Each structure stands twice: as C-alpha cells, then as structure tokens.
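ARCHIVE CARD
Drawer: 12
Card no.: 0347
Subject: one protein chain, sequence and derived structure
Cross-reference: see card 0346
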Amino acid sequence: MSIGRVIVVGTDGTPRGDAALRWALEIGAHAGDTVRAILVRPRDTLLPGTSFTIQPHGRVPEAGYSLDEHMRELGISSAAAVETRTVHGDPATELVTASADADLLVLGTHRGGVMADLVLGSVGRECVRYSRCPVVVITPEAAHRLAPA
C-alpha cells in the first residue's frame, strides 16, 4: 500500500488563490492524499517613507478572516484529506519551508505589474526558484479549463 502525497497550496482568499485551491483539491489530489492549504499573514512590518507602510505585501485578508470558513463557503469536494494552516511571516519563505515535506506546491498567479514585481518581489518566482518539490502555478482561466465536467 502506498502512502498518499502531500500537496501544499498557498492561498489568500483572492479569486486567484481560490483557483489554486480548487485545482489542488479537484484535479491534483486523489484519495489518500493530504492537501495543506496555507494562508500566510505577513508580519506587521513598517517601512518608513514608502507607500507600503501599512501593507508591505499587498492585500491581506481581514483580521476576522477564517481560512476554514472560507473553504466551507467555496464548497469544494475532494477525496483528499484537507488541513488548513495560518502562519505569520514572509509568504515566499513560509511556502518554500512548507515545500520541504511536500510532494507538490500549488500557487495561484497574481498580477502585480512590473513596478510591484521590482519593489515587492514575486512569491511565485521565489517559490519556483527555491521550492524543494515541483511547483504548479495556475491561473483561474487554466483552473477552469481543467475542471472536471
């Protein structure tokens, strides 16, 4: 009997994060697999003199946001076991760390533009570069195309 795979999904409550979560649960995971949905909340960091003083990493779900509740609202069914985690830190660092004991890391795309990419960096790029397992970066359009009929 083989042991199931561990699939880590970085999600943030956005439609793009939801697309990654849906893809992982509906397409990527099978019976016996474990899907770990991880929400990374950036640490409260002030960057004096910049426009990123309050939210240096961009959109952050509200303080009352519950990943478990959000997943229930999405109504995604899967044969895989589902775990949710909310951690604090740098999103790319936390997701790369989580990839150490994963068989696959799934991320949604984000459109930040050239300036946002230069100033903030790209979580997806860092994960692809440093992940310890294969990485799937999926757009909502691709997730929809690949969804079961």
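Annotation on reverse: Strands lie at 6-10, 34-41, 81-88, 104-108, 135-138. Residues 53-58 have pLDDT under 50 and may be disordered.
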